[in-house]
C-alpha cells in the first residue's frame, strides 16, 4: 500500500517542476492550500444534503405540487389477471407478437386488449407526475442556489476579469474559505446524487448517469488536489448556468404551463449554446491551454486536465447539435416539453382515457398525435449527462 500510495501521489505527475508536496504541506501562518484530506469533508455533507432533500421533497415540494393541483397517485391500473401477471413478472414486460397471440388465444381476448393490459401494467410502476415534480423542484432549488453562490463568488474574484490570475503564483495560491465552501458543496451534491440514484425514479439511463456523477466527482477532486481550484470555479459556474433553467422548464411542464415551458426551454437552449460553445472555449480553454502554458508550463497532470476539458468540449458540441434538433422539432410540432425518460406509454390505437388520466406520448409516438412531444426532457437525458463536469 505504501508503494501504491507513493506511485499514485508522484510529485512529478501532480505538480510542476521543482515543486514538492512538502512545499505545500507547511504554508505560512494563516495561509491554507488545498489538501486531499479536505475532500473527505464532502462525505458527511453529502449525507446532510440527502436528508435535507428528503424533508424538502416531502414537506415543501409536495405542498407546492398540491397547490398546483398535482396530486400523488398513478393513472389507470390494469385489471387483476393471474395469467398475465405471471407473464409480466417472470417472462417479459413487453411481449412480442408470438406471446401476444398465445395469450390472446389462452384468455380469449383480443390482441389489442392484451397489449393494453401490459401497457397499463407497465404504467403502474411508473412514477407519478407528483413524484417527478418534487424531484425536479429539489434539483432546481439546489442548482439555483449553488449557481447564485458561485456566480457571486467568481464575480468578486480577480480571475473572473483576468484569467491569467488563475496561474500567477501557481501552485502557491491561497485557498479562501469561500472557494473551499464552493468546491466542497459541489462535490457533496454529486456524492448525494450518487447515493440518491438508488432511491430516485428508476430511469433507462441509470448507468450512464451513475458514471457521469462518478466522473464529475473525479474531475472536481482532481482539480482540487493539484490546486487548479481557481479555473475550476470558473468551469463549475459556467456549467451551472443552464441547469436550473432546464429544471424550471420541467416544473412548468408538470404544472401544465405549456407556454412557460416552451419559453424556458428556449432560454435554456440559448444559455446552453452561449456558455458551452462560446464562453467555455473562448474564455476557459484559452486560459488552460495557452495562458497556463506561458505562465506555468506543461507537466503531466496539466496534460490530463486539458485533455479532459477538450473531451468535454467535444461533448458540448454533440449535445448542442442534439438540442438544436430538439428545438427545430419543437417549432415544427408546436410544443416542447415532456419527460420521455420515464413518461407514461401510449399508442395511437388506445382508446381515450378518463379526463383525469392524462396520457402523454412517448418518444416514439407517431407524428400528429395529441400530447406533448418530449423535447424538454429529451434534452435532460442527453444533456445532463455532462452538465456539471
Automatic annotation (TrEMBL):
Entries under InterPro entries matching the protein: HD, Homeodomain-like_sf, Lag1/Lac1-like, TLC-dom
CC annotations in GO: endoplasmic reticulum membrane; nucleus
Keyword Transferase among UniProt keywords: yes
Mode of membrane association: Multi-pass membrane protein
Domain TLC: residue ranges: 131-332
Subcellular location: Endoplasmic reticulum membrane; Nucleus
TM regions (residue ranges): 39-56, 140-160, 206-225, 263-284, 304-324
Species: Scomber scombrus
Signal peptide annotation: none
Composition bias type Polar residues, residue spans: 359-373
Designated name of the protein: Ceramide synthase 5
UniProt entry keywords in alphabetical sequence: DNA-binding, Endoplasmic reticulum, Homeobox, Lipid biosynthesis, Lipid metabolism, Membrane, Nucleus, Transferase, Transmembrane, Transmembrane helix
Biological process (GO), any one: ceramide biosynthetic process
Amino acid at each position: 500500500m505504501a508503494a501504491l500510495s507513493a506511485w499514485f501521489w508522484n510529485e512529478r505527475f501532480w505538480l510542476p517542476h521543482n515543486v514538492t508536496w512538502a512545499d505545500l504541506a507547511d504554508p505560512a501562518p494563516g495561509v491554507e492550500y488545498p489538501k486531499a484530506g479536505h475532500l473527505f469533508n464532502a462525505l458527511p455533507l453529502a449525507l446532510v444534503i440527502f436528508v435535507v432533500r428528503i424533508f424538502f421533497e416531502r414537506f415543501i415540494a409536495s405542498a407546492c405540487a398540491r397547490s398546483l393541483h398535482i396530486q400523488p397517485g398513478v393513472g389507470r391500473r390494469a385489471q387483476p389477471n393471474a395469467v398475465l401477471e405471471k407473464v409480466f413478472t417472470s417472462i417479459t414486460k413487453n411481449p412480442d407478437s408470438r406471446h401476444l397471440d398465445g395469450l390472446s388465444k389462452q384468455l380469449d381476448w383480443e390482441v389489442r386488449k392484451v397489449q393494453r393490459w401490459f401497457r397499463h401494467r407497465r404504467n403502474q410502476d411508473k412514477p407519478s407526475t407528483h413524484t417527478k415534480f418534487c424531484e425536479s423542484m429539489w434539483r432546481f432549488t439546489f442548482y439555483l442556489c449553488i449557481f447564485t453562490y458561485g456566480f457571486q463568488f467568481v464575480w468578486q474574484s480577480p480571475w473572473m476579469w483576468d484569467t491569467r490570475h488563475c496561474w500567477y503564483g501557481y501552485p502557491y495560491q491561497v485557498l479562501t474559505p469561500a472557494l473551499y465552501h464552493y468546491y466542497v458543496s459541489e462535490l457533496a451534491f454529486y456524492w448525494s446524487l450518487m447515493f440518491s440514484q438508488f432511491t430516485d425514479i428508476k430511469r433507462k439511463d441509470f448507468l450512464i448517469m451513475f458514471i457521469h456523477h462518478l466522473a464529475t466527482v473525479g474531475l472536481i477532486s482532481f482539480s482540487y488536489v493539484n490546486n487548479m481550484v481557481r479555473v475550476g470555479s470558473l468551469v463549475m459556474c459556467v456549467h451551472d448556468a443552464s441547469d436550473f433553467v432546464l429544471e424550471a422548464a420541467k416544473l412548468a411542464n408538470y404544472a401544465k404551463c405549456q407556454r412557460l415551458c416552451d419559453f424556458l426551454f428556449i432560454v435554456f437552449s440559448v444559455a446552453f449554446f452561449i456558455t458551452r460553445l462560446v464562453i467555455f472555449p473562448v474564455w476557459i480553454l484559452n486560459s488552460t491551454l495557452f495562458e497556463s502554458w506561458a505562465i506555468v508550463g506543461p507537466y503531466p497532470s496539466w496534460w490530463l486536465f486539458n485533455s479532459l476539458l477538450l473531451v468535454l468540449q467535444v461533448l458540448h458540441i454533440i449535445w448542442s447539435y442534439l438540442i438544436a434538433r430538439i428545438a427545430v422539432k419543437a417549432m415544427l410540432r408546436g410544443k416542447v416539453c415532456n419527460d420521455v425518460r420515464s413518461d407514461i406509454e401510449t399508442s395511437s390505437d388506445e382508446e381515450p382515457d378518463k379526463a383525469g388520466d392524462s396520457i402523454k406520448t412517448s418518444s416514439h409516438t407517431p407524428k400528429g398525435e395529441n400530447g406533448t412531444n418530449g423535447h424538454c426532457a429529451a434534452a435532460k437525458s442527453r444533456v445532463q449527462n455532462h452538465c456539471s463536469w
